[in-house]
Amino acid sequence: MTSHTPITSQRVPRAYRGAILHALSQNELAYFADGLLVVDSEGLVVACGPWAELKDTLHGVAITQCEPHQLIVPGFVDTHVHLPQMAVAGCQAPSLLEWLDTHIFAEEARFADADYARTVSEWFLTELLANGTTLANVFLTSHPGASQIAFETAARLGNRVIMGQTLMDRQAPDSLLRPADQLLRETESLCRQWHGANGGRIQYAWVPRFALTSSEELMSGLGELRRQHPTVYLHTHLSEQLGEIAVVKAQFPWATDYTQVYERFGLLGSRTILAHGIHLCDDELVRLKGLDASLAHCPSSNFFLKSGRFRLMDVLRRQLRLGLGSDVGAGPELFLLTVMKDAQYMQSDTLVPLATLFYLATLGGAEALHQGHRLGNFESGKEADFVVLDLPATPVSLYKSPVQSPGDSEALLSRLVYQGHQHWISETYIRGQRVYQRAAIVQD
Ligand SMILES: [Zn+2]
User: 278 and 399 share a domain?
Assistant: First the structure.
């Protein structure tokens, strides 16, 4: 049983003592079996390291002692997810385009009803916190009213999100379409109200669904908005399925490839996040790297819709900005540890280093969303976004060991990736404030 706990206002420094694991880079972890995370009154990390080294630096700081079976990790970063698809997650269809027609468009049309939009927004945003996700890059629907409700709900619950009204002006049911000029006015108005809101926890993104639902007028208007608002994100899909790519080629015959459609209208650059990118050719990857665009790898969704195999190791070697995405509702669940596991299983001929998977779900995701300078791990000065996990008892309780050794963290991380469960999330903190606490199970 879970419930949302109101934000507790932290106005005093606090330290958390327990096992701590965080990523320093793509290949490097820091693990402290008996560690200390010190957070100041503004919610910023003061220090993170072994208890034995830091204990004498604490003067008048309240200490929260974690249980021996608990582990502190940075909050998870979901670089691609759809709020209005919560209720239809796990509904199967033979292909992406048929899945959209069968399940998704009808569900998104329900968000014309403000009460429904409010109910699902609260459910989705609470579930993000219950899954330990402290930063998410979120598609909304094409309704400005429902988008407004989603932003208001995120501000009230304390979520850290990048969100935007989903923009479609063709090739979807009429109830979800609007003229391009109207969409451009609506989305700019929402952006002016919400970009940077709630102390910077809320950021705005221009969100054309994908090339097939976007007219050239809409994409060119968005290119102009990107130039006018350089700190606003652009979030869309790219190259997910072969059938989709064939239709894109037919509709944009002047384009040499899918990437060029967005490129021509000025939609690609820093702060552009592209979901999937499964069937990109080498030249597209080179251009995306040169433009500093980010990719969101969503393996659970790719398995579900049988979209294909993402070139994870190749993209890592090319050093593109890259994070993991749950892609709910094509991905069945929000929990990023499951997405890490699916990313591993998708690379059937290569063992992805566990440290790399953990990095992608935390610091790498933050860097892909251009927020790595202020969150993603426990470097001093960063905002203290973290999760307290309850690890179930095992015969070998590695995390109880007072001895710090590399083998401990590797075995611990392996258990997290292959056995991690959403019910392990005990508490979630954003900027030092507790935004979620699992309710105690009441037994009769
Ligand atoms: Zn998606």
Answer: no
Distance, in Å, from the CA atom of 289 to the CA atom of 315, rounded to the nearest integer, reads 9
Where do runs of H (alpha helix) occur along 252-333? 258-264, 282-291, 299-304, 312-317
Q: Across the chain, what does the average pLDDT equal?
A: 93
pLDDT digits (tens, 9 = 90+) for 385-439: 999 999 875 544 455 444 433 347 888 899 899 999 999 999 999 999 999 999 8
Dist CA 174 CA 82 (whole Å)? 20
Banded pLDDT at 441 (limits 50, 70, 90): low
**Same-domain status, 386 and 351:** no
Res 11: pLDDT: 63
Going by pLDDT thresholds of 50, 70 and 90, the confidence category of residue 5 is: very low
User: How large is the greatest C-alpha to C-alpha distance in the chain, in angstroms?
Assistant: 68
How far away, in angstroms, is 53 Cα from ligand 1 center? 45
With respect to residue 442, please indicate whether it lies within any of the assigned structural domains. Answer: no
Give the CATH number of the domain where residue 202 resides: 3.20.20.140
Within 10 Å of residue 222's Cβ, how many Cβ atoms? 26
Alpha-carbon span 411 to 168, nearest angstrom: 46
Residue 8 lies in a domain: no
For 271-284, the pLDDT digits (tens) are: 999 999 999 999 99
Question: Looking at the whole model, is its pTM more than 0.85?
Answer: yes
Question: Cβ(125)–Cβ(118) under 8 Å?
Answer: no
In the reported structure, the alpha carbon of residue 327 is separated from the centroid of ligand 1 by a whole-number distance in angstroms of 5
**Tokens standing for 310?**
């993402």
In this structure, what DSSP letter does residue 349 have? T
What separation in Å is there between the alpha carbon of 139 and the centre of ligand 1?
A: 8
Rounded-to-integer distance, Cα 233 and Cα 254, Å = 26
Angstrom distance (rounded) from CA 116 to CA 433: 29
Question: How remote is the CA of residue 97 from the centroid of ligand 1, in Å?
Answer: 12
Q: How far is the CA of 80 from the centre of ligand 1 (A)?
A: 6
C-alpha of residue 404 to centroid of ligand 1, in Å:
40
